[in-house]
Amino acid sequence: MRRHANHRPRRPSVHTTRWQLHRVVVMGDALEINHFVLHWDLENMQVPREASTIQVAFRIRDAIRARLPQAVLRDFFVYADAGQLDAQRKQDLRLAGCDLIDCSSVHGKPGQVDLRIMARALKSTEGVLLITGDSDFAYTISCIRTSGRPTAVVYDSDHATSVSTALLQVA
Q: Contact at 8 Å (CB) between 146 and 26?
């Protein structure tokens, strides 16, 4: 099969079908996640153009509630370069109850999504759930676990190969 010169590998996306909550690790004396903050790296795990952003966000919540029925979602943060999102996508995120964190590049420096997720995750006291496949978060998750807080990685089970092995090992 021939590929065009402009062909780029397809980035993983968040589908509206099956979701899997990867191994929930509970540290210290905590026996369950009571409260958690959800951090969605939208640039790494995208919503397909044809999918409903609202439905994807609701299905993410439903999948987590099914796995952690006792847990309370404190915040649902979505991280992306807001300038790259169309007005409808931004509106849908608001309607779904998500807080969009604008991670526009500062002076052309990439990596703002990673830095902002890390900063928010490290300063909160609740359990941390990440929707990402990025291995850059392996160290952050290790630090959060060391502080005694539970962590988990949420991903589309149809695209498990898009999730970093290092990330899954520390989750």
A: no
Q: Alpha-carbon distance 69 to 56, whole Å?
A: 19
Digit-by-digit pLDDT tens for the chain (171 residues) are 444 444 333 444 444 334 455 433 332 223 356 789 999 999 888 887 788 999 989 988 888 888 778 888 999 999 998 988 999 999 999 999 999 999 887 656 567 888 888 888 888 888 888 888 888 888 888 888 888 888 888 877 766 777 888 887 887
Q: Where are the alpha helices (DSSP H) in 25-155?
A: 53-67, 87-95, 112-123, 137-146
Q: Does residue 150 contact residue 127 with C-beta atoms inside 8 Å?
A: yes
Exposure class string for 69-105: b at 16+ Cβ within 10 A, else e: eebebeebbbbbeeeebeeebbebbeebebebbebee
* Tokens encoding 120: 């928010």
